[in-house]
């Protein structure tokens, strides 16, 4: 059964944040709220966690995983950001955007898109997620919690606990979260291409 941890949305309890970080380091799979719905997350080196995410969401190996990053400096360790992208992305984060960019050697090959060698990255505007990332010291491998047959991300922690009780290890509750997904911008070819319009204003990336 999954543990249910209720964190304060503005002042997350350090003791509970530490429990989540410790669980991630022990290869736990968590369901956690972001600024654009719930997500599934695990540590980068957690092979089983990656496979569990694919099974829960009924996805194949071509799924574009996202690295949830603490800040722009951390993001720059895992993806190549050229000069044209640097200013625009830096101005847009933190916020509800996912950027698809060429992965650096820091990203395990199994987490990259098999053909394009790209990976998604985002910097959330969410107090609880930032607290977890700060203590973890590395990105969280993440995928939006959209279940098979559904079109929107889950937003209510106790419902996730009921439905995924034996499929995840921890469900994090932290107040209300929007069901609107991130705006996805593919910058892997040198020019921004908006692949999905979500909570983030796409106009800044449209020519």
Sum up the structure in keywords:
207 residues; alpha/beta; ten-stranded mixed β-sheet; 6 helices; 28% helix; globular
Walkthrough of the structure:
With 207 residues, this protein is of the alpha/beta class. 28% of the residues lie in helices and 23% in strands. The protein contains 6 helices and 10 strands; from the N terminus they run βαββαβααββαβαβββ. It has helices at residues 14-25, 47-57, 72-78, 83-92, 127-136, 157-163; strands at 3-6, 30-34, 37-43, 66-68, 97-102, 118-122, 140-144, 170-173, 183-186, 193-196. Helix 1 (14-25) packs across helix 5 (127-136). The longest helix is centred in the first third of the chain and has 12 residues, at 14-25. The radius of gyration is 16 Å and the shape is globular. The mean pLDDT is 94.
In short:
By secondary structure, the chain is an alpha/beta fold.
């Amino acid at each position: 059964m999954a543990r249910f941890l209720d964190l304060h949305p503005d002042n997350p309890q350090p003791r509970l944040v530490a429990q989540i970080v410790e669980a991630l380091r022990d290869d736990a799979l968590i369901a956690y709220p972001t600024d654009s719905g719930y997500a599934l997350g695990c540590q980068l080196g957690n092979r089983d966690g990656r496979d569990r995410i694919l099974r829960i969401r009924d996805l194949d190996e071509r799924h574009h995983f996202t690295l949830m990053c603490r800040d722009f400096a951390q993001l720059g360790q895992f993806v190549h950001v050229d000069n044209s992208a640097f200013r625009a992305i830096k101005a847009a984060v933190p916020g509800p955007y996912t950027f698809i960019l060429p992965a650096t050697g820091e990203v395990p090959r199994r987490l990259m898109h098999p053909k394009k060698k790209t990976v998604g990255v985002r910097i959330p505007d969410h107090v609880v997620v930032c607290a977890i990332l700060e203590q973890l010291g590395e990105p969280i491998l993440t995928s939006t919690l959209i279940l098979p047959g559904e079109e929107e991300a889950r937003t209510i922690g106790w419902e996730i606990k009921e439905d995924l009780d034996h499929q995840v290890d921890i469900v994090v509750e932290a107040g209300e979260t929007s069901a609107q997904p991130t705006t996805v911008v593919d910058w892997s070819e040198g020019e921004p291409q908006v692949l999905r319009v979500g909570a983030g204003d796409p106009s800044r990336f449209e020519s």
